[in-house]
Write a structure and sequence with these properties.
Blueprint (H helix, E strand, L loop, with lengths): L6 H6 L4 H13 L6 H8 L6 E5 L5 H8 L3 E6 L2 H10 L4 E4 L14 E6 L12 H10 L1 E12 L14 H10 L3 E6 L13 E7 L4
Helix pairs in contact: 2-5, 3-4, 6-7
């Protein structure tokens, strides 16, 4: 997320890491599948892929993808989230940074996949969304994928109203040189219908 007055910081004050981790621990203990995003991404990747988890939070998805044999780098602007991630996976790459200025982190380009799950895009600082999409597109290899999951109505957001439409998002992706490949309603791959409240989108960078 962006550190420039992002919506997430306004909601949490940058102190949500421990409670966020406890929430998913409770879900896992109650039998919920908390690895749907990782399974979705893994199914689209070759073994040992390079993955950028943008807005990685407490590292839940990146840690699982690493367990599945991929090489993951996590970036987040919330130190409280990264503190949990670092505790859970000491040797993994966790970077503190603003997604709108991802180029300042010195990442080597050529990622097979960039992931922005957990409503990362709707919770960015207003006005930074196109820049974040451009930054994520820039780190992908030709043929690399940008995968996003986002709420499109209040029911699927921690906000009273939506901040992003799919039309806007697809336009930002097109401006960044990305093409929409697939769109689903859930991480389980249920088909998306127009007007749905949640969308999982797969965009790709052209191979030539």
């Amino acid at each position: 997320m962006s550190s420039r007055r992002d919506r997430w910081a306004k909601l949490t004050g940058g102190q949500a890491g421990e409670e966020y981790a406890r929430r998913f621990a409770r879900l896992a203990e109650s039998g919920h599948d908390v690895h749907g995003e990782a399974a979705f991404c893994d199914a689209l990747l070759k073994p040992a892929a390079r993955i950028l988890d943008a807005g990685c939070g407490t590292g839940r998805i990146a840690i699982r993808l690493t367990e599945l044999g991929h090489f993951c780098t996590g970036v987040d602007v919330d130190p409280s989230m990264l503190a949990v991630a670092g505790r859970e996976a000491l040797t993994q790459d966790w970077l503190h940074g603003d997604l709108a200025h991802l180029d300042r982190l010195g990442l080597e380009p050529g990622f097979d996949l960039a992931l922005a799950a957990g409503n990362v895009i709707p919770l960015l600082a207003p006005g930074t969304e196109p820049a974040v999409v451009r930054q994520l597109a820039a780190v992908l290899r030709p043929g690399g994928l940008l995968i996003t999951g986002m709420g499109l109505d209040a029911e699927h957001l921690p906000l009273p109203e939506p901040t992003v439409t799919l039309t806007e998002f697809d336009h930002w992706c097109e401006q960044a040189g990305l093409t929409l490949r697939q769109r689903f309603a859930t991480w389980a791959g249920e088909p998306y219908c127009s007007g749905g409240g949640y969308a999982v989108s797969v965009h790709s960078r052209p191979t030539a």
